[in-house]
Design brief:
40% of the residues lie in helices and 15% in strands. By secondary structure, it is an alpha/beta fold. α3 runs parallel beside α4, α7 packs across α9 and α9 packs across α12. 47% of the residues are buried.
Amino acid sequence: MSKPTVFISGANGFIAQHIIKQLLDSKTYKVVGSVRSAAKAEKLESDFGNHPDLSLVTVEDLSKLDAFDSVFKEHGASFDYIFHTASPVVFTITDFQNEMITPAVNGTKNIFEATVKYAPNVKKFVQTSSSAALRNPEASTDPSVNVTEKSWNTLGLEESTKDYIKAYFYSKGTAEKISWELHEKLGAKFELTVINPVYVFGPQAFDSSVSNHLNFSCEVINSIVHSKFNTPLSNSVKGNFIDVRDVARAHVEALTSDKLSGQRLILSENIFSSELIANIINEKFPQLNGKIAKPSPISNEEISKHLANIDNHVTKGLLSFEFRDLTTIVVDTVSQILNVEAKK
């Protein structure tokens, strides 16, 4: 009996690599992943040891409304499940419309339509969205706001082209809405699940991905590891967190759990701040104590006064596992960083 095949867009992404790792480790699935260049494909194949159940294809430009068509025309009949994780998360851009909003929206529209047209055997479509789809940026720091699986941001296109934060929030909310709308409009026969994580922390899937500058969320931890003792920590860096390995597990569980079909999931364990992360690093890594940003007496209660309340008890009730805590995440992440640097 042949293994079911999972297609995953943006296969070289931080979350996507962990999803692929869990799929392959299960020895249950074959994986076809899309990347944007041959160079990215070569590195990913090398990281996975040229795994026989992993193959990669190139989708260069998500902005094109036929971006996935050729891949799905050729391979779509073999796909049983779709993970759509590809979406820009780059905050050094200046053209917010063309570099963030258009790729996120068009990429989602095209892969969904291509699945309906060319992948008749797909049973489930799982989309990686973000907690940004759940509320407006200013609501993130409003403790009177209660965010649930039914919440949405209300941003319009015009106001979202003025800065990268609003552009990101708009891109995630609009791309997710497109999936729900197309699922109904096109009469899709497959089930849809959308996963909305908060700040995603945790170790890289491979040591080869550890560099001087990490992906957006993990750089929060990395920057503290490389801070100086007298470095003041920004109290603006705070929010809710989730471990990347738990995000990946939720994706994989969505393939086999009918309870997750038709659901929006909020993946969040608790709240964090730069100060709390620095406290953990100073405590758990005595070799860094006195060299990096010093500990702070800040508490969870104090931080929560400046954050919206994320109520995801429904999501936690649907999933079969508990999320990792902040200490575990920070220790695993910092250990990997220090081990890689020691080898260099």
